[in-house]
Amino acid sequence: MSDDVDASPLHPLVMRFCYADPPYLGCGKLLYGKMHAQAAEWDDPERHRQLVGQLCDEYPDGWAMSLHTPSLRTILPMCPDDCRVAAWVKPFAVFKPNVTVAYAWEPVIFRGGRPRPRTMPTVRDWVSECITLKKGCPGAKPEGFTLWLLDLLNVQPQDEFVDMFPGSGMVAEAYERWKRSPRLPLQYA
User: Fold this and answer.
1) Omega within 30 of 0 (cis) for the link into 185
2) What count of other Cβ atoms lies within 10 Å of the Cβ of residue 109?
3) Count H helices, E strands: the chain?
4) pLDDT digit string, tens, across residues 96-133
5) Model confidence pLDDT, tens digit, residues 54-97
């Protein structure tokens, strides 16, 4: 066994993590209605509560969920007290007509993760990455976002990482590329 992998009971050799990027509260039917028949169910806060419960039950090692700033006040209280909020800051974002303060960051609620020894570099609770354009699915995440997310949860190459809402497939593709050639510490900025 490698010296750099701790397989003690406190640090299992293989852990399971999940990333959820559901249609944002109130945006399901509007943005995804033509692509997915069930998109409108995400316009109901109760559906997000069910998702949080599912993430807690099925991924006790750790999970992260993207949402938009208007829904943070609704969804965060649905989460366990040990959850944290991180930020995806977008130096290039879409500016919408009649919105005088741009939505240029997105919250990412996360919970758990592989314990990080003090010998590892500290990870910031934010990442600065530009949005993606023309990827076939609204809200497709850039590769740098995925690498940061893997670092945030301290995912290791032997772990299972599930992209619950694959959409454009970009998160899974970035994860697979990283898994074939992990860069530790991860470099995303």
Assistant:
1) yes
2) 21
3) 4, 6
4) 888 899 889 999 999 999 999 999 999 999 999 988 87
5) 999 999 999 999 999 999 999 999 999 999 999 999 998 778 88
- What mean pLDDT value characterizes the chain? 85
Q: Does position 17 have pLDDT exceeding 50, yes or no? A: yes
The pair of three-digit structure tokens given for residue 38, joined into one six-digit string: 């069930």
Strands 84-89 and 16-20: unpaired
Return the CATH class of domain 16-180: alpha beta
DSSP conformational letter for 183: -
Q: Which of 122, 88, 90 is nearest to 108 (CA)?
A: 88
Spell out the domain ranges in the chain.
16-180
> What is the rounded distance in angstroms from the CA atom of residue 149 to the CA atom of residue 146?
5
User: How far apart are the C-alpha atoms of 189 and 176, rounded to whole Å?
Assistant: 19
CA dist 186 and 189 (Å) reads 9
Scanning the structure block, which residue is given the tokens 């694959």? 166
CB-based contact 162:20 (threshold 8 Å) = no
State both tokens at 155. Answer: 């995912």
- Given strand 62-66, what is the order of strands in its sheet? 126-128, 84-89, 105-112, 62-66, 16-20, 160-163
CA distances from 102 to 62, 66, 91, 96 (A): 31, 18, 11, 7
